[in-house]
Amino acid sequence: MRAATYGYQALKEALAASISARLRIGPRSPGAASLPGSASVGRPKPLLYNAMLRGYLAQGLPQLAIELFQEMTCPPDHHTYHLAVTACARASEFELGRRIGIEAAAKGFASDLLVRTALVVMYSAAGDTEAARMLFDGIRHRDDVVWTALIAGYARTGRFGQALSLFERMRSADGVTPIESTLVSLVSGCASSGTTWKLHNMMHALAIRSGFHLSIFVCNALLEMYAEFGCLSEAVMLFRQMEVKDSITWSTMIGGLIRNGRRPDSALKVFRWMVSNSTVVNLA
Question: Is the pTM of this model over 0.70?
């Protein structure tokens, strides 16, 4: 058994025991198998698999979630397909995720909101914005997750104009409130798009209006945007205003000073400031 699976042995046992109690089939013996399909549990159900898949994803183990899905001994339900596609997106197993999506459609889950949302997220992460958009357009009630996924997909593939247009439509036509990761994706896309100074200012104003001007993740994205375009005065001002700074904040500021031709002592001064006056928070 691999080391990563040891931490889940207790979870497997607890879940299986809970299901056994619910079905009134008596307690599990100490040596009984902990996965679905053991004689004590009876006919395997997707419930335990889904709980295990969620557990692996929560712990950042998407590859183990994929392996568990492939070892299932009962038919998956729509939750299972949603979790399996999500695992493929996080593990960058895009071709496998595409095949799982086709299988889900063949089983009658083509219009399921959870499955379609997971596929939009996966195709957007893969850079296949055409496939993502086709699925997106077929979703009647879209939440902030699916909007953010497609916006991020456009931004990541250099189609910032479409990302910005979709963001405006998200707020106006559908009335969906942006979340933190929506702003991060949009600002990051702006930083890599070669857009105008006016648009940079608009991104910062948008972060303020959306209520994310204190978010360290949004501020880090804004800091990178200003540094990328040589707007050091704005970068320094934002940097000084940030009450919480993590390792990304400091490295972005130091790197921005070096990239934009400031004297080495400027970057060294910031580095010394970091060492002597700050507890660097690592939020990664």
Answer: yes
